[in-house]
Design a protein that fits this description.
alpha+beta, 6 helices, Deoxyribonuclease I, Chain A, 22% helix, six-stranded mixed beta sheet, 14 strands
Length: 263
């Protein structure tokens, strides 16, 4: 008798650029067709009490929300078929707790971080906030990794790492999202033992997750890869695939994902 195939856990991450707007473009139909085991959403721009029940907690999922204090801004949500072992809405730096940027859930064999990293394009003050967030978050990740935790960190990082990760690197060399100081943080992240899961499987160019809403950018595939799954090295042997789903519309971003084997 053939051995039973081990079940893979399908984890997706998607910046929906407003969950209510995305819902009007078929979000729930897509969710139930794809049926991921875990879905991490960023930039939800809504409190759960502003949503209809079928969106607040879709059938078959446990929903966890972390909304910004500022109305209609930022926010993350994690939908998971199996209730998590633990939930936190902070990584321990209170300065960053007001904007609804993180959900940390404990699962069997790994800890999942759903993160909407700050955007630095609104000026010097916000760029510094982004860099401060990066620094504090990396300190947290390194601390958790040294404790032997298995970490999966997904979300909109708001930075393209390498020239291969955007269509026009030279033209954007002085644009927040591709500044040397932002990219250096991703170098530091990988240098501390975190792996860009997608690039481990897909070294080819022209693989993007966000497209500007003008110049027919998405149709022409003039985009940026700023949505990632980074995993600690002790998780990487369990990652069986990593992928981008550019055919899924409803936002200016598309979903990204990994398949995680048992471990």
């Amino acid at each position: 008798m053939a051995a039973r195939r081990a079940k893979l856990t399908r984890i997706l991450s998607w910046n929906v650029n407003g969950i209510r707007a995305c819902a009007g473009k078929g979000f729930l139909d897509w969710l139930h067709r794809d049926s991921p085991d875990v879905l991490c959403l960023q930039e939800t721009k809504a409190r759960p009490d502003q949503l209809p029940p079928e969106l607040r907690e879709p059938v078959g999922y446990k929903a966890i929300w972390n909304s910004a204090q500022r109305p209609g801004y930022s926010g993350v949500a994690t939908f998971t078929k199996e209730p998590p072992d633990s939930v936190r809405l902070s990584f321990g730096a209170k300065r960053f707790d007001d904007e609804g940027r993180i959900i940390v859930t404990g699962h069997r064999g790994f800890v999942l971080y759903n993160v909407y990293f700050p955007n630095g394009k609104q000026g010097e003050e916000r760029l510094q906030y982004k860099l401060d967030f990066y620094a504090a978050f990396l300190r947290h990740l390194v601390h958790e990794k040294t404790r032997g935790r298995r970490l999966v960190v997904c979300g909109d990082y708001n930075t393209a790492h390498k020239e291969i990760d955007l269509a026009h690197p030279r033209e954007n060399a002085r644009t927040s999202g591709f500044l040397p100081i932002e990219r250096a943080w991703l170098d530091d992240l990988t240098g501390r033992g975190f792996v860009d899961a997608f690039r481990r499987f897909h070294p080819e160019p022209e693989q993007y997750t966000w497209w500007a809403p003008f110049y027919n950018a998405r149709k022409r595939n003039l985009g940026w890869r700023i949505d990632y799954f980074f995993v600690s090295e002790n998780v990487m042997p369990r990652v069986k695939d990593a992928f981008i789903l550019p055919q899924v519309t409803g936002s200016d971003h598309c979903p990204v994902g990994i398949l995680l084997g048992a471990g």
